[in-house]
Write a structure and sequence with these properties.
Strand order of the largest sheet: 1-2
Order of helices and strands: HHHHEEHHHHHHH
Low-confidence stretches: none
Mean pLDDT: 90
Largest sheet: 2 strands, antiparallel
Radius of gyration: 19 Å
Length: 289
């Protein structure tokens, strides 16, 4: 495997590790990255790689929060059931239902309709504006929910509906949509962020497992190195990013991410407009990839 290809994989792993947890859309960043970083891999492997690399990000959550995620405890050589943790997982399951149902029924159709740079850019900008509006509304208003245990099953379902928006419209950001849903419900920024992290575990694990099963395990040596390296980099960067975000939201709101999303959305529109209408001889139709 050539050194330049290793550098490309490292860069993509860094982008994945940062953008998966910050509410700024990993899809939007991956679209831009794919325009400039061309990995020497097949299209089929790339499609799988860009999803399965998320497994490294999942492991970061598991490592950082394994005591809170584990539904049993081992004290004094005895196994104890943690009722609060089981209830939390039931709430997470409720949050997963809307996106899971719609994804199974309409995944291919949604990709055909919405997986294009125009949708990505619009959703980047739209949810960037939502962040600013919601944070302005919540200014000087104390949160009503200050722990995951206080989140009701109805709240969990509403958060799941916000996650569904991200599942349908790429560029929304899964973490961004669920955090906004939490803020609207009166959940504190820290709790909204943590719930988003936990919710990602079954969602991203399921997506990674599905892509891997479809691709199969017949990797070349270079493909295996690419996948493992990407996941390791995503894992390390995700740990740093998660810790940064939790420290950041204790003292700041999410408006800075809103402005960043707006700027990135305009950049995506500007880049593809310039490329498709001024550089290429024929207008593009908004395709991604």
């Amino acid at each position: 495997m050539e050194f330049i290809e290793i550098v490309k994989v490292v860069i993509i792993g860094i982008i994945q590790g940062v953008t998966e947890w910050l509410p700024i859309s990993s899809t939007g960043h991956m679209i831009l990255a794919d325009e400039f970083i061309h990995l020497n891999i097949t299209e089929a492997f790339k499609e799988m790689f860009l999803v399965v690399i998320q497994f490294g990000s999942i492991l970061a959550v598991v490592v950082l929060y394994w005591k809170r995620l584990l539904p049993v405890s081992f004290e004094n050589k005895k196994i104890a059931i943690k009722k609060e943790t089981i209830i939390m997982w039931l709430k997470i399951a409720v949050s997963c239902v809307p996106a899971a149902v719609i994804g199974v029924l309409f995944d291919k159709k949604m990709n055909e309709l919405f997986y294009n740079y125009t949708t990505v850019a619009i959703m980047l900008i739209l949810f960037g504006i939502f962040f600013i509006i919601v944070e302005n509304r919540n200014k000087n208003v104390p949160p009503k929910i200050n722990s995951i245990a206080e989140i009701t099953f109805m709240m969990a379902f509403v958060i799941g509906l916000f996650q569904l928006i991200a599942a349908v419209f790429p560029g929304t950001s899964r973490s961004g949509s669920t955090i906004i849903g939490g803020l609207i419900l009166g959940i504190s920024r820290t709790v909204a962020a943590e719930y988003t992290f936990f919710l990602a575990v079954p969602v991203m694990f399921g997506a990674s497992a599905l892509k891997l099963s479809k691709f199969g395990m017949n990797f070349t040596a270079a493909e295996a190195i690419t996948l493992i390296l990407g996941m390791v980099i995503a894992f390390v960067v995700s740990i740093v990013t998660i810790r940064f975000l939790l420290g950041y939201v204790k003292k700041h709101d999410f408006k800075a991410f809103g402005w960043y999303r707006i700027a990135l959305g305009l950049l995506v529109l500007g880049y593809f407009f310039t490329y498709c209408w001024l550089v290429t001889p024929l207008p593009c139709q908004g395709e991604v990839g």
